[in-house]
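Appendix B, Record 12. Input sequence as logged:
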Amino acid sequence: MSLADLEPNSLHVVLHVRSHPPKANDFHWGLYLHRDFEAGGTKYHLKGADKRWLADHGTTRGVFKSFLLIGLCQVARIPSGLMKDVDAMFRTYDHQLNEMPGLTCRTWVFRVLELLQKPHSGQVLLECNDLTSLEYELLSWGNANALAAADCQQPRPTHRSDLCGL
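Logged structural output:
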């Protein structure tokens, strides 16, 4: 897959394996907000562990080149006029990460996705009513593709969530 295969203004959950051989349900989680083929997009994730978290967000045209990337799962379409607002939402917790009990990269992703479930400018940006079911869908998809990622097989897969009205 390549950036040209991604829908403009699409939001993806990004999963990475943490070990070789991969362990079931053990992933690094992040988000990728794709703009278009020319610009690429912004990858949002956390680095660290156990109350030593650092937000690591940045623009990229190389999301498919990320080390140990499993792939991208599209969960939403973002209207062009709301891309900057969504970027700000993704940064909501950046200054309080180390004050959030039980925070992990996975729990951070779902806290951010919860923000997108609330109406913004009259629109709900994430049309997924059940984040627990979405998590299970992502875990199942990640587990099915983890060994290929650990073995650095190309191309990296993409998926559209079956639960998010895409």
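The radius of gyration is 15 Å.
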